[in-house]
Amino acid sequence: MYDVIVLFDGYSENTEMGSCANCSCVLLKGKDNIIVDTLTPWDGEKLQQKLWNNDINCEDIKYVVCTHGHSDHTGCNYLFSNAKLIVGFSISSRDLYFDHDFAGGKPYIINEFVKVIPTPGHTLEDVSVIVETKDRGLVAITGDLFEKEQDLSDDSLWKSVGSGHDDMQQENRNKILKQVDWIVPGHGPMFKVPDHYK
C-alpha cells in the first residue's frame, strides 16, 4: 500500500489580469514511486526540493501521471527522465508510445495498489489515479474533475472552468464519489468524501 503525500495544494482565483492557478501535486510513495501532476514549467526547483524533503530523487520516480494535458499539470515532466509518462490518454517512455484503450473505459494497472482510470469531462482525455493507502482507504487524485471541495455544493466552481462536457464530467464525478474515501482535487486541498455520497 501507499503513502499519499500532497507536495503542493492546488489553487485558483480570478484576478484583474486573468486566472491565477496551479495544480495539486502529489507523491505516491510505495512499491513504484509515482508523481501525479507536475505543476508549471517554472516550478522545477521547488518540486525537486519537496521530493528531497521526502527522501526521493527525481530518478526514483517510476511513473508520472498527468491527469490531463494542461500546462499547469504537465510543466515539470522533464525532471523525470527514468519515468513512464501517462498524460491523459497517452502513455509513453522516451520516444515509444504504448497503445491502451482508455477511450473504451479500460483502466491502466500500475500495480496491485494503483490504477489510472479514464474520467473525461474537464477535457475529453482526463484520467484519475485510484490508490489504496495505508491509512486513508481509497484515495482518488482527480485533477480538474473536481476543482476543490467547495464544488460539491456549488457546481459553478467546476462548470466555469470546464470545456463543455458537463454531463460527462458529472457522471465521472459521481462514479468517483461512490467508490473512494478521499479526493485530491485539481485546485484545492485533499478532502474526505461525505458519507451521503456512498
Automatic annotation (TrEMBL):
Q: Where in the cell is it found?
A: Cytoplasm, Cytosol
Q: Name one Pfam family in it.
A: Lactamase_B
One GO cellular component term, please give it: cytosol
The record, for SMART domains, names: Lactamase_B
The protein's annotated catalytic reaction(s) are:
a ribonucleotidyl-ribonucleotide-RNA + H2O = a 3'-end ribonucleotide-RNA + a 5'-end 5'-phospho-ribonucleoside-RNA + H(+)
Q: Which GO terms describe its biological process?
A: RNA 3'-end processing
Metallo-beta-lactamase domain segment(s): 22-187
What the entry lists under Gene3D superfamilies is as follows: Ribonuclease Z/Hydroxyacylglutathione hydrolase-like (3.60.15.10)
List the CDD domains: MBLAC1-like_MBL-fold
SUPFAM superfamilies referenced in this protein's UniProt entry, alphabetically: Metallo-hydrolase/oxidoreductase
Task: Describe the task this protein carries out.
Answer: Endoribonuclease that catalyzes the hydrolysis of histone-coding pre-mRNA 3'-end. Involved in histone pre-mRNA processing during the S-phase of the cell cycle, which is required for entering/progressing through S-phase. Cleaves histone pre-mRNA at a major and a minor cleavage site after the 5'-ACCCA-3' and the 5'-ACCCACA-3' sequence, respectively, and located downstream of the stem-loop. May require the presence of the HDE element located at the histone pre-RNA 3'-end to avoid non-specific cleavage.
Q: Quaternary state and partners of this protein?
A: Homodimer.
What is the protein name given in its UniProt record? Metallo-beta-lactamase domain-containing protein 1
From which organism does this entry originate? Answer: Henosepilachna vigintioctopunctata
Q: Which lineage do the record's taxonomy fields give for this organism?
A: Eukaryota, Metazoa, Ecdysozoa, Arthropoda, Hexapoda
